[in-house]
Amino acid sequence: MKHTAPIKLALVDDHKLFRKGLIGILEMMDKEYEIIFEAENGIDLQQKIQKDNQPDIILMDVNMPGMDGFDAVKWLVETYPLVNILVISMVEKEEQIVKMLKLGVKGYLYKDIEPNELKNALNSIVNKGYYYTDFITGKLIHSIQHPSELNETQDAFHLLNEREMEFLKFACTEMTYNEIAHKMFLSPKTIDGYRNALFEKLNVKSRVGLAMYAVKNGLVEISN
Amino acid sequence: MKHTAPIKLALVDDHKLFRKGLIGILEMMDKEYEIIFEAENGIDLQQKIQKDNQPDIILMDVNMPGMDGFDAVKWLVETYPLVNILVISMVEKEEQIVKMLKLGVKGYLYKDIEPNELKNALNSIVNKGYYYTDFITGKLIHSIQHPSELNETQDAFHLLNEREMEFLKFACTEMTYNEIAHKMFLSPKTIDGYRNALFEKLNVKSRVGLAMYAVKNGLVEISN
DNA sequence: ACTTATAAAGGGTTTTTTCCTGTTTTGTTT
DNA sequence: AAACAAAACAGGAAAAAACCCTTTATAAGT
């Protein structure tokens, strides 16, 4: 332990109860940590982070309303390249983990860990600059050995333009293509083109495949 | 405050970090609460709860691997009818809320509440037997005024038999009906019948509607 | 002014889905 | 064994989806 001042932390998570709980946990174990601010999502983070009082480590959730963890991390590494990011997520999909690691986060934890492991992770990041468990390393290696899926799926979000996203949402409903064409003020033949383009881009073969792809990648609301 | 002994609580949530955080929060505010056990899911709960040391209130998550919140609550109200259940969930879908209320839970909270509201909820349940916010009441009233969706969707799970569920899973892939028929060792015409039956039962009009219904109601895996 | 790229639109065809109408087979009850 | 219900199967037809290849308009880049 070579630090003299307390480690400055920031929390980004949309669940207030989780944030408060985390604060409780962190305060309980020694007084090494100081939470300088909390944020509910990426946008909130952008407003609250300050140049002259940067946190050492940001504990970041991934799935949040508003700006999600991916965009928040992208923005952070551009704007505050010195800040260490530790992701704490409920999701353990390889895709998401690898995506985050590629963006440059210093660690990835699940929410069902022991409080002690959180402490280890924080200390490891301060001292060594990273904290990767064997499980994460395993995922990473697997993704290197099987790059296909990831390269296909790679961005998915940035692969589709505004209009295609709009079409995709309609394609996930019970509307016929003719109805979609009418709603989008386009010819059915143009809709034909959109469908074929998305089949190609997303590597699917049917409208059901399209819809399932969309839900798998969180491209459409699954509300009601 | 008329209680003399501390209120006995139990936590059921699959995220250890959240449980520990919750414990921290609860311990911080006075010593009114005593956590007698934690569980990761419904099955874990069944093993850890004891007749001679029942909790006053069980804080219950909904979406958990293993036995989920619904089945856990069903089992609880049958086996331990005196135990009060307070749901703490990230999900605010009317369907889920109403379903839980029908099962007899005494309160429903979101995870992004203030720690203070949790305390209010716990005290309210001890003193008045329930804690329903205006938002929950609103959802409930809306569900009474618009019962259609809920009655259609009501059980969904118990509405479909084994074979229909199997068909539904295939229908959510890119297989054609002919291919599904072959895979299920049935005539394409029988598959026709399955499709029509599900269209009727689930009140959808197309295969995409079927697939979207399935994902919305968690009837199919959204893995990879 | 001339390529280049791209979104939009069209014509025509095949396959799949969807919707009717039924009949046969199978299992269960009485 | 007769009666009944449910599951399986069929013929035929209309609609929608999917695929082919071609053309126009429009803007951007050189």
TrEMBL record, chains A, B:
UniProt entry tagged with the keyword rRNA-binding: no
Highest rank taxon of the organism: Bacteria
Keywords assigned by UniProt, alphabetized: DNA-binding, Phosphoprotein, Transcription, Transcription regulation
Xref: Gene3D superfamilies: 3.40.50.2300
Sites bearing 4-aspartylphosphate, chain numbering: 61
Entry-linked Pfam families: GerE (PF00196), Response_reg (PF00072)
Record PANTHER family: NITRATE_NITRITE RESPONSE REGULATOR PROTEIN NARP, TWO-COMPONENT RESPONSE REGULATOR
Record's protein name: Response regulator transcription factor
Originating species: Danxiaibacter flavus
Lineage of the species this protein comes from: Bacteria, Pseudomonadati, Bacteroidota, Chitinophagia, Chitinophagales
